[in-house]
Amino acid sequence: xxxxxxxxxxxxxxxxxxxxxxxxxxxxxxxxxxxxxxxxxxxxxxxxxxxxxxxxxxxxxxxxxxxxxxxxxxxxxxxxxxxxxxxxxxxxxxxxxxxxxxxxxxxxxxxxxxxxxxxxxxxxxxxxxxxxxxxxxxxxxxxxxxxxxxxxxxxxxxxxxxxxxxxxxxxxxxxxxxxxxxxxxxxxxxxxxxxxxxxxxxxxxxxxxxxxxxxxxxxxxxxxxxxxxxxxxxxxxxxxxxxxxxxxxxxxxxxxxxxxxxxxxxxxxxxxxxxxxxxxxxxxxxxxxxxxxxxxxxxxxxxxxxxxxxxxxxxxx
Amino acid sequence: xxxxxxxxxxxxxxxxxxxxxxxxxxxxxxxxxxxxxxxxxxxxxxxxxxxxxxxxxxxxxxxxxxxxxxxxxxxxxxxxxxxxxxxxxxxxxxxxxx
Lengths: 317, 98
Known about the structure:
The complex is a heterodimer of chains A (317) and B (98). Chain A has helices at 51-65, 81-93, 107-115, 128-142, 156-172, 187-199, 214-217, 244-258, 264-279, 307-311; strands at 23-25, 35-41, 74-77, 97-102, 119-123, 178-182, 204-211, 238-243, 283-289. Chain A is of the alpha/beta class and 317 residues long. In chain A, helix 7 links the parallel strand 7 and strand 8. In chain B, the strands form 2 sheets. In chain B, strands 2-1-7-5-6 form a 5-stranded mixed β-sheet, covered by helices on one side. A two-stranded antiparallel ribbon of chain B has the order 3-4.
């Protein structure tokens, strides 16, 4: 434990400090003492998010399969946590990384990627994230030297959570009734959910997912709907939609009551956790807080009177 | 009567409305009522006679796929939300055609 100065450890590399994140109880958020809430603090990974696990696992899997030769350039369409995690792993393992992102993403993400050493290719801002994916695919096709990890379809993503996130929770607790995480690629819910079900067969696996604002929605048709290949919705027991306002209310509650400064998806996860906690008379709920709040500090919503309007134009996780 | 929230992409099919009232005691019946009044919606919501995999329907904020699907009972005054399935996890990057 960190509180015992007689126990000191060293790690050979920052990559060896990925995972084994703390699991902390949230007694001040629990509606009743017989319902115990625990949060897995993924913001304590080296680049500050759960995606460190995924980036490391995807690169190691590609190295093991022989697909990723030394110094082969990596390419990923991303402007978020996965890009930053890949940038760290790529740097330490000796791969150049190019991230394709819309020209209008926030400067703090762009700067962070540059500082980690990633190259950035801009895709047209008005095409949003679809444009970044399209351009990345074009680049990968025209230059086969690129390796694209592609977290949405990469089995190393859920496997990282099966072997890591889920196994760590199963080792830490004698019993878990409900497991809740945010729904993005589906990696955490599929991988950790499967591992926890092995230890606790009656487990309820619950997803919190974002209700985007109209402006984001307006860019997509229903036929543009996308279900990541690694996500099997039939493995989810609950799937709860959370508004941006509810997510921010969850963030504030988490900070006020428990002193945890978390990112937007964690606010949604806390909202869903409290909703499910109300349904239980007793039990243990574990939720995953995917990142910390630092990367969102410049966002307008923290002090906005109209949170919905302040968050309308972006996808937040 | 249930309220049905219409995503921006479908509002053109329903005269620009953000929300509609529809009748039915199950999710399927409510959607059928909607489609009967606005037939172009059928092609957007269904594939091979079933709710298309890329369409998500929520009742009381919960995906009907984790409830009883189209058979899920709907009480008077409840709200249905229709949304395209969206992947997150990468700062809003949503692959298409991959």
